[in-house]
Structure formats: C-alpha cells, structure tokens
Amino acid sequence: MPNTSTSEQSVIVPLPWDSEHFGIRCGKAVLRAPLPETLAEELKAELADYDFVSFQNIGNDVGVNRFLAQSTEAYLVDVNVQLEKEIGETPPSAGTCPIVYAQDLEERILAQMSVGENDFAFSKFVCDPEMKRRAGYRVYACWLKNAKNDPDKQFIFRTIDDAVTGFILFRIRERILTSELVKVNAFCQGQGVASGLLRELEAYAAAQACRRLQVGTQLNNIPAINLYHRLGYREVSRTSVYHLWR
C-alpha cells in the first residue's frame, strides 16, 4: 500500500490492473491547478512505493507542466484531446454496419478485432520507449477482450466478405455515447471506413435519444482530429500525460 501522505488523500492512486498486467507497481496521479504547496513533498514520499507513475495534467495547465518538469523526472508522452458533438437532426442510418453488445459478439468476429503495434502509432503505449519495450500496445487487446464482461459496451463494425475491416467500441451512459476505441485495418485506410462507421453511430445514438457524442484521440494524431472536425466534432478539453519510471 502507498505511504500515507500529509494530505487526507494520497496523491498517487494504485492501479491494480496495470500492476498485474505489466508485473510492476503502477500508480496514477491526477493533477489540477492550483497545486498545493505541500504537493512536492507528498509526491516524494509516495513515489518510493511505485515503479511506474502516470501523471495526468487536466486542462494541460502550464503551471502543472512546469511543476512536473522541476519536481520530478517524468516526461511528456501524450496530450489527450477530447471532442464532442451535439446530436441534432440526424438522417436515419443505412443499417449497413452491425451494432452488437460486446457480450453477444460472436467469437469469430471478436477474433478479427486484433490490435497490432502499428495500429495506434500515436498512443502513449507505443510512443513511450519504455512502454513500447514492454509491449504496452497489448493493453488494447485486453481492453477488447474485457469488453465482453461489461454489459454497457457495444461494437459497431464493418465487414467485407465476412471479414472485419473496421470497428468502434463504445458505450452509452446518461444519454451520452462515448467512442472508446476506433480502428480501421491498414489495407482499408483512406476509404472512408471510419467516417462511415461514425456517421452510422451518430444515427444510432439519435435513435437511442442520446444528447451528444464523445471521442478522444492524441494531439499528434492529425488525421483523426481532422476527421472529427469534418464530421462536426469540436474540441472540449486537453490533458497532458507524463510517465515516470523508477
């Protein structure tokens, strides 16, 4: 268990799943401005209990970035961009892409929803050399596999000759549809697969009386950001992510 900090609650929160997956002690610290003056000392006391810590700077605040640079050896690995789109009058879906709850998805379909190291080139699991050395991209495969255990998770996917060419893992909560994972097979990229899936997903969200759509991507993933902008999404937040290895 982490050391008890001088505040009522520890700065670093343990990550049991990540710790088991990577075989090291993992933690996460979510930082927001303004930072308390005692934070640096609290972090030093808690860091000894972890081999890896992910820092999330909500809002990408300059002061928090400066604090991390001056007080830790953590380095920037990602700037996560969250985008949203309000659902207005949406044309009905063409219905060409199946939408299935993850727990009901056929194993032969799920088996085709593989994730390789090059599928998410801008991900922190690939861009961080230490995470790459540990094959961090395999987290996505676990993410897909574990989706079957969550009754809220659904898939929309496109097939050609019974072969999956692209898919989106998503969930709906409180009338908000959130896309969690978007992938198009390399040989189908540039053919409008992602935009087609997103348009059908929007029509589905409208039919489910959702109020808006949410999706996240990396700041460096310019093609994805351009796609979301073309489809009417707008940026609502940025979070910088730092990694610290001991």
β-strand percent reads: 25-35%
Quaternary state reads: single chain
* Low-pLDDT residue spans: 1-7
What is the CA-CA span between the terminal residues? 17 Å
Brief characterization of the structure:
The protein has 246 residues and is of the alpha+beta class. The protein contains nine helices and ten strands.
Description:
The structure is a single chain. With 246 residues, the protein is an alpha+beta fold. It has nine helices and ten strands. The radius of gyration is 20 Å and the shape is globular. A hairpin with a 2-residue loop joins strand 6 and strand 7. Strands 1-2-3-10-4-9-8-7-6-5 form a ten-stranded mixed beta sheet.
Give the secondary structure arrangement, pairings included:
Elements (H helix, E strand, L loop, with lengths): L12 E2 L1 H7 L3 E6 L7 H9 L4 E7 L3 H10 L3 E12 L12 E3 L5 H4 L13 H4 L1 H5 L4 H9 L6 E8 L2 E11 L2 E9 L8 H15 L4 E7 L3 H9 L3 E12 L1
Parallel strand pairs: 2-3, 8-9
Antiparallel strand pairs: 1-2, 3-10, 4-9, 4-10, 5-6, 6-7, 7-8
What descriptive keywords fit this protein?
single chain; 246 residues; alpha+beta; 10-stranded mixed beta sheet; 9 helices; 10 strands; 29% helix; 31% strand; disordered N terminus
